[in-house]
Design goal:
The chain is mainly alpha-helical. The protein has 16 helices and six strands.
């Protein structure tokens, strides 16, 4: 369940845990230091700041988000229904009379509960970095890291089992490393606090059949070589990596977990009511499953798609700020397979928007992305590289025997 909430794909990951401490895991850190960045570039992740109060620990409230909690609530509702069924008509009237007599206390309790819930919600609102969107954060980034460690264990032990890990000297690894380093280095200068609180590591897995990449909330980046084959240029690769990095930088893992927590908590009341009121167990079970699945389609999936669109938008700006052509980057959604069916109807049953909608969204953002690209003085850098290349080629040709004036 956690992997779906955090946006972690179960088809990704290295298989040998020992590589965490090996060279490939820390190459990004060393590469950026080599570019002259501060030595303290990637410290241990810090807890994300909440608006008014500290966010709630997963150990405190995470239980109600588990299937066990739903089962216990269902059992409690059924026990209540059985107890009520066994009561005599006179006893039922007496119970209703007692409840009616104390209804002001009941109304007061419900009112206090609603007031407390409203206060809790507004005290846990914060502003999303970079985009400025207001969001509810029940959990912090630090809380999510506790969950991610379990997912990371799964990734390192099971996914990509038997696949080859590319060493840092491999050309494919070097290509991913170069693009990743450019993204992290360029954007760190603008949002240092956001990038410094994550411990960035890079893993590249040789599996041409998997077209995917993922960045855990901890900063661990996993890339499959199938993605390299699917990207037509470095700009497209930079966009996908920037998209995944955006999820971690923006704290989408903690946000998605918080949103899921609210839906699950409110759903427990509905589950209790279903099992307490519906007289048939079979009907209660199917209605229970139907409401749970419907809640996912109506609330979880749209929220997930919203976060994906936001990661697309911020990712495009990250790539543009790293001097990758935003127009070329956006075109990846016109040909990249396996991400989503190009169907705006089917996407309502998916956690991700369809490719067509994603391309349309990025097309609207292109003027802003081009402005970011120009602000980063990418055009001047490109001209310098062209002049440098021209000079190196001229020097090389001058050494040729057939070059005019050559002494050979």
């Amino acid at each position: 369940m956690w992997s779906r909430i955090l946006g972690i794909s179960r088809v990704l990951a290295p298989s040998r845990r020992s590589l965490i401490a090996s060279g490939p895991a820390n190459v990004v850190r060393h590469a950026i230091k080599a570019k002259g960045q501060a030595p303290r570039f990637f410290p241990t992740a810090h807890a994300q700041r909440a608006a008014l109060l500290h966010t709630t620990s997963t150990r405190q409230v995470g239980f109600f988000m588990t299937p066990v909690a739903r089962v216990l609530v269902a059992v409690g509702g059924r026990i209540t229904r059985s107890w009520w069924k066994r009561l005599s008509p006179e006893r039922k009237k007496a119970v209703w009379a007692a409840v009616s007599k104390r209804r002001k206390y009941l109304y007061g309790s419900v009112g206090l509960l609603c007031l407390g819930g409203t206060g809790y919600y507004y005290s846990h609102l914060e502003t999303t970095p970079i985009t400025g969107r207001r969001r509810f954060m029940m959990f912090s980034k630090k809380d999510v890291l506790e969950v991610v460690e379990e997912e990371k264990e799964f990734i390192l032990k099971t996914v990509a089992k038997g696949k080859q890990w590319l060493p840092p000297t491999d050309p494919a690894y070097q290509k991913v490393l170069s693009v990743t380093t450019a993204i992290l280095s360029s954007n760190r200068s603008k949002w240092q606090d956001l990038f410094d609180e994550l411990n960035w590591k890079l893993y590249v897995i040789d599996d041409p059949d998997v077209i995917n990449a993922v960045c855990l909330p901890s900063g661990d980046i996993f890339v499959f070589t199938g993605l390299l084959n699917a990207c037509r240029n470095d700009a497209e690769l930079a966009f996908i990596l920037s998209h995944e990095i955006s999820h971690s930088v923006l704290g989408h893992g903690a946000e998605g977990l918080s949103h899921k927590g609210v839906i699950e908590f409110l759903g427990l009341f509905l589950i209790a009511a279903i099992w307490a009121v519906i007289p048939n167990d079979l009907v209660s079970y199917f209605l229970h499953r139907f409401t749970h699945n419907t809640a996912e389609v109506l609330f979880d999936y749209p929220y997930s798609r919203k976060l994906e669109i936001e990661a697309d938008q911020v990712g495009l700006l990250f790539a543009a700020n790293a001097c990758f052509d935003p127009e070329k980057a956006a075109k990846i959604w016109t040909h990249l397979p396996n991400f989503n069916v190009d169907d705006k109807v089917v996407e309502y049953l998916s956690t991700h928007p369809c490719n067509e909608r994603r391309y349309e969204t990025l097309s609207i953002l292109l003027p802003t992305a081009h402005a970011v690209w120009k602000e980063a003085k990418c055009e001047e850098e490109m001209k310098k590289e062209v002049r440098s290349f021209q000079q190196s080629m001229t020097d090389f040709l001058k050494k040729a025997p057939w070059w005019p004036g050559s002494n050979q």
